[in-house]
């Protein structure tokens, strides 16, 4: 039987080919595995048109480990971060920056608006101590798309350095070093690249990394050391996520075969549209206005009905082979449906049918 469809922000549904790529054991010292690492690093740099100026530092762990490593390594100990927040992932960056003992100032836009570049420009003028700015490309807690091109322009104009958490956007939304200035972009294996969970990676300006020796707060989350070791030996510092790497390589082959980022974005956009329209036909409303909605994950208002209960709804859709995701908002009761993963129109229809079935069982007539 097919696994349940994961309509979640990751881990997400992977293809059979990607899963099958994990049926081998790899020695961490072996030249085949080193070649795999080198090739993956190059392919990831190529995805942002990073050319000679950027390098890829992969890191064991989930995406947050890579975010923490990037902030801790790239910021000098006396640096100050301006953290742009419009949801839980932005808040998480502010929190981890504070925990590792770097100064952080938060610019909060609430949960229902995109980051406003004009306010970022003002904040940079009013606080000259700021050295770095962090922004989330697609704020996965709501699905909001942030205007990173305009943000990168004001950050560059102020002479500051930009760190982009592109976790849920990388591989689908546009992101190129040719038209965007940033010191680092962070993403992971298990979102739009449709690999399995277990590693993050940071695409860094090599010049920024070269200056980062001794800055990290942590041994294992030191990207500079990870990078130096990899450059010198071709190997990972500490046990590599061998199966995750093998799966990501095959996932990237499928990404290329599909037609790359543009084709992937087109598939996710179609998924998103089908979902929003199908939900509307059932009387369910998506949370965000169209202009803020990234085609990554859709937040949906919970039905205003006395029978509504997310746990019961979740169980009922699960019985139909569809896994949904709870909401993450403080201001409204919502749930979320992912548009990403190895899923297309047929799967969106299965999800919509499962939702209709669940509402009917719960006696919710909208
Ligand atoms: C998924 C995600 C992360 C990382 O989450 P992990 O659970 O640590 O993998 C970070 N930022 C954003 C925007 C994300 O979507």
From TrEMBL:
Residues 32-324 form the Aminotransferase class V domain. GO terms for molecular function: 2-aminoethylphosphonate-pyruvate transaminase activity. Its cofactor is pyridoxal 5'-phosphate. GO terms for biological process: organic phosphonate catabolic process. It comes from the Bacteria. Its EC number is 2.6.1.37. InterPro entries: Aminotrans_V_dom, NH2EtPonate_pyrv_transaminase, PyrdxlP-dep_Trfase, PyrdxlP-dep_Trfase_major, PyrdxlP-dep_Trfase_small, SP_NH2Trfase/AEP_transaminase. Substrate binds at residue 336. The modification N6-(pyridoxal phosphate)lysine is found at residue 191. Keywords: Aminotransferase, Pyridoxal phosphate, Pyruvate, Transferase. It holds the Pfam family Aminotran_5. Coiled coil: none annotated. It catalyses: (2-aminoethyl)phosphonate + pyruvate = phosphonoacetaldehyde + L-alanine. Gene3D superfamilies: Aspartate Aminotransferase, domain 1, Type I PLP-dependent aspartate aminotransferase-like (Major domain). NCBIfam families: PhnW-AepZ, PRK13479.1, transamin_PhnW. Belongs to the class-V pyridoxal-phosphate-dependent aminotransferase family. PhnW subfamily. Homodimer. Involved in phosphonate degradation. This is 2-aminoethylphosphonate--pyruvate transaminase. It comes from Undibacterium parvum. The lineage of its organism: Bacteria, Pseudomonadati, Pseudomonadota, Betaproteobacteria, Burkholderiales. The gene is phnW.
């Amino acid at each position: 039987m097919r696994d349940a469809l994961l309509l979640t922000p990751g881990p997400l549904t992977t293809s059979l080919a990607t899963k099958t790529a994990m049926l081998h054991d790899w020695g961490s010292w072996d030249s085949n595995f080193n070649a795999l690492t080198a090739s993956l690093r190059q392919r990831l740099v190529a995805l942002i048109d990073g050319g000679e100026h950027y390098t890829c530092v992969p890191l064991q762990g989930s995406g947050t480990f890579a975010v923490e490593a990037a902030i801790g390594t790239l910021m000098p100990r006396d640096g100050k971060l301006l953290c742009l927040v419009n949801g839980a992932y932005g808040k998480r960056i502010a929190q981890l920056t504070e925990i590792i003992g770097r100064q952080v100032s938060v610019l909060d836009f609430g949960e229902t608006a995109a980051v406003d570049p004009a306010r970022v420009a003002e904040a940079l003028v009013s606080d000259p101590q700021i050295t770095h700015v962090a922004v989330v490309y697609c704020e996965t807690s709501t699905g909001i798309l942030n205007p990173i091109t305009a943000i990168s322009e004001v950050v560059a104009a102020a002479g500051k350095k930009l760190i982009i958490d592109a976790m849920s956007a990388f591989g689908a939304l546009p992101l190129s070093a040719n038209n965007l200035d940033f010191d680092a972009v962070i993403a992971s294996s298990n979102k739009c690249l449709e690999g399995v969970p277990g590693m993050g990676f940071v695409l860094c300006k090599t010049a920024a990394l070269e200056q980062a020796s001794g800055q990290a707060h942590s041994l294992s989350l030191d990207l500079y050391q990870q990078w130096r070791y990899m450059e010198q030996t071709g190997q990972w510092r500490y046990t590599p996520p061998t199966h995750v790497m093998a799966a990501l390589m095959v996932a990237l082959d499928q990404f290329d075969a599909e037609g790359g980022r543009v084709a992937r974005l087109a598939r996710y956009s179609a998924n998103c549209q089908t979902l929003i329209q199908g939900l509307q036909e059932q009387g369910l409303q998506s949370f965000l206005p169209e202009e803020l909605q990234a085609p990554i994950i859709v937040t949906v208002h919970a039905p205003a009905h006395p029978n509504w209960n997310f746990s019961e709804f979740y169980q009922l859709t699960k019985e139909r082979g569809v896994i949904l995701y709870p909401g993450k908002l403080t201001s409204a009761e919502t749930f979320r449906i992912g548009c990403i993963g190895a899923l297309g129109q047929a799967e969106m229809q299965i999800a919509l049918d499962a939702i209709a079935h669940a509402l009917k069982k719960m006696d919710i007539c909208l």
